[in-house]
# Entry
Amino acid sequence: MSALVAASDLAVAYGGSPPALAGVGFDLRPGERIAVLGPNGGGKTTLFRALLGELRPARGTLVLAGRCASVPQTERSRLDFPVSALDVVLMGTIPGRAWWRRPSRADRAAARAALARVDLADRAGRTYGELSGGQRQRVLIARALVQDADVLLLDEPFTGLDATSAARLEALLAELASEGRGVLIATHDLEQARRWDRVLCVNGRQIAFGVPAATLTHDVLAATYGGAIVTLPGEDAGAPHHAILPPHHHHHH
Amino acid sequence: MLHALTEPFAQGLMQRALLEVLLLALVGGTLGCWIVLGELSYGAESLAHGMFPGLVVAALAGLPLLLGGAAGILVAALAVALAGQVGRGRIGRDDAVAVAVTTLFGLGALLALSPQTPVGIQSLLFGDVLGTSAADLLAGGGLAAVVLLALWGAHWRLLAVGFDRNGARALGVRSLAVDALLLGLVALAVLVAVQGLGNLLVVAVLVAPAAAARLLTHRLAPMMALAVLLGALAGVGGLYLSYYASVAAGASIAGLLVAAYLLARLGAAASSIRKGRAAAAG
# Structure
């Protein structure tokens, strides 16, 4: 099957400044989930913005065979904003509609269907800020689905979720991928990254790309996260565990 | 009783004033919700006060107030934008804007106190809702229609930007364009409302009803409806007060708008205490 996304020697820059991310070469196939690992400011969001067409490649090629949609972090949105879950999903119908047009009946039906797809049909009328973190994340996924996205770009979707919500979200992502979509997940969670199909490690440039078992070596992680990596004794001697210190958050580009 | 309610509106002057306050309630209530949600109250106030020299010059030159107001707002917007740029980093943006607006307002006051100034200049400051002419209503109605149509059309883009500015970009919404549109509409609304409520009180109708409604509901459509209703009640109530208690109409309306906000604040506080008690009991 042909790739949904194919990047080759891709470099992305803000304005005329030196590239924030360079040397990126990877492909995303239908049905595949790829973890994007990297420190804050390492270029994960820059890559997503290039995929969304907000930034043009400064060098190299980026071929998109499908529509990309972003699933931002839930805490980036204003939780005190007076919108319902359905309103948020309907925002996904804005692209391609003239600014004076309102959502059509078909748009509303599509939004309700997307909410049903993420198991939130009964929450359509709820105020977004009153939903749980996991539910809010699923509403944002529904907003991407209503855009008919072939590629979902998720920005640290598991941050702040309890184990049950995280498991539910993980199952949903597996389902969405199995329907032929590609899923890119920016994350700090190494253990989770090991369960995806492939991993892409970036830190200003691409460090490594491949299946997790072969890619997430100590050297690759050290190059990805600099000194902020520690090796934990593994449960079995053959597989040491790595952890990242500290996975703190601040605004990255 | 019924007679007491209808009597004030037997005169054409009061009928026009009634239409004017209802128009202001409609524009102020709907646009006000976006002002409050977008935290643009200070910007609205800056525009309203900064336009004062334009109004005074129009009054001195015998030009239509609408024209002077429009020119004044343009100058005020430029001054505010420039003030935000000059001295960036060393002086806070709000401080720079405050200096620019106070300068403009002072300039207006200087002109207003000149010997050539015609009487009635205080109506520029405090408005003259009872002096609304049919032509004022027509112009105000036209501008109000533009504001309402633009809000109706841009609703989803305003919603997307207000909800999540960065996320809106990924939906193809240019947040700067949406901001510019909103500020333009605020300028138009100030222009509509300044004739009735004057330079100093105009912000009351743009901010107070929406701020009160914001405290009482968590959804946008009810918030807008409630804000329009509160604005209309305060407007009509102010006209009655003015008629029966012989107090200034504009000030009465502004006073009632602020009272509505304070009541909403009390109501919201009482309800959160009740909820807290219920949660503690349950």
Q: What stands out?
A: Residues 247-253 of chain A have pLDDT under 50 and may be disordered. Residues 49 and 181 of chain A are 19 Å apart (CA to CA). Residues 77-149 of chain A form one domain.
